[in-house]
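@here heads up, posting the sequence + SMILES for the MTE run so it's all in one place. Ping me if the SMILES looks off, I pulled it from an old spreadsheet.
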Amino acid sequence: MELRRREDRRRFIKLAAAGTAVAALGGYYFLADDEETKAARRELLPDGRSRLPPGQKVIKRLKPMGGQRGDSSKSAFRLKVYGAVDAPFELDFAELLALPQAELALDVHCVTGWSRLGASWQGVRIADLAARARPRPTARHVIFEAAHGYTANVRLADALAPESLVAHRYEGESLAGRNGAPARSLVPSLYFWKSAKWLEGIRFVERDEPGFWEVRGYHNHADPWLEQRYG
Ligand SMILES: Nc1nc2c(c(=O)[nH]1)N[C@H]1C(S)=C(S)[C@@H](COP(=O)(O)O)O[C@H]1N2
Ligand SMILES: [Mo]
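bot reply: prediction finished. Complex structure tokens:
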């Protein structure tokens, strides 16, 4: 028993030195560093942060993470942009496509430890939607509302960042149903749970409203570089 524990401990130290220890559900698990992960960890963003947040490992495709699916048909799509704004409006899918489109190579980071780097995402900047809705000066947060009551709250500044999108294409194709088709929010600066699939509404609010995961123990802000995993 004692020997077993010492061996576990030695393994822990070796793995921790070679890769990354991630705290999860009361225990630790390890992510061995492959070449891509090492390279991404060495790479620096313009502001000097590592491109890869701590505790993350690079993977080649989005992992299906589930969630209660909404209607993925484009014909049924309606997006409400409303709340503490002067000019609320609603878009159908054709109207979303008629707005200026951004196609960006973005990194996304899931709290379970994987990152998908540099994939191409296309959509409409949330900042452009906000410019049309005209949030009141008192608006401080944005609540993404998705099918079956899933919500995610983000700070206004995160929602208005130039990489934050209502995304409807991924890697040159329409979003897959499991990835939130026909459109999802995408806020790459925060852990991926903040990016609501099967998006139905963007509500500007004066007072914050912790969302689906935030009321279940996850961090309210969710900055991957600060490892804001749990609240
Ligand atoms: N509507 C909705 N959006 C959601 C979720 C969900 O359960 N429902 N899960 C979130 C979580 S925890 C993650 S990691 C990402 C996963 O996105 P993906 O399945 O496209 O990889 O979606 C986020 N958006
Ligand atoms: Mo997640």
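MO: The two ends are 35 Å apart (CA to CA).
MO: One more: The chain is about 20% helix and 30% strand.
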